[in-house]
Amino acid sequence: MKRTAALPSRTGQDALVGITIRVDRVEEIGLGRPATADELAALDVRGFVVVPALLSDAEVTSLNTEFERLVAEDPESRRHELGTRRAKGDNDNDVFAVCWRHRVVLDAAVHTLGSTFEVGRVDLRDPSPGHGEQRHHPDHGPTAVPGITATWYLDAFTAANGATRVLPGTHVSGVPWASEIPIPGTEAPIAGEAIAVGPAGSLLLRDARLFHAGGRNSTGGSRRSAFVFYQHDIPDGVTRSA
Questions:
Q1: Which CATH architecture has domain 16-231?
Q2: The pTM is what?
Q3: Across the strands, what pairs with 126?
Q4: Tens of pLDDT along 185-229?
Q5: How far is 84 from 129, CA to CA, in rounded Å?
Q6: Which residues contact 24 (CB under 8 A, 6 or more apart)?
Q7: Residues 148 and 206 sit within 8 Å (Cβ to Cβ)
């Protein structure tokens, strides 16, 4: 189902996938401050940027409450990915509006994708202790196409709890030494990685072509996050991770 972002009242049964957003609507629907020139430049050069503590404590608390409600109500929440709690949030859920309508994210999408693009649903992820590690991979399909992945930190992301590992610059250079994607043997840290740490309420913006991987949660606590994906055309059912 494709829709244009007009923000009418909708029922929970009318969930949206692939909402179309036009640049002339960004100021109208956007929440929070705009992206800075430095943030957009880092996205261009490195393929990612962490914007620390962008959300208030109250917003983080509200998002975590809704996270726990949705996971509890989804009988499949622990079956989508081994050792990980997962669920989906709808774009018409007011609690998640800040995740897909924040100006920093919308400005990054306009910067990378141009005047018209789509936004997918909100994916929720929490790797359990002892789980969460992934192989390095990009967030596009078989063909490298531009996109933006926004990861909202609902808990602090630390090296110990498996904060996202990124390979700076690979959104441009690719990974010429890898012939298979996801890259075998990259579940553990490799040379050249950066670890995208940040306190709860932070935002990790990634170019969809950047190679990245979730780390292993080696603590006894949670590492909850909310993901939103922006692309020119988002297939129904697409799920991103890390």
A1: Sandwich (2.60)
A2: 0.90
A3: 85
A4: 999 999 999 999 999 999 999 999 999 999 999 999 999 999 999
A5: 9
A6: none
A7: yes
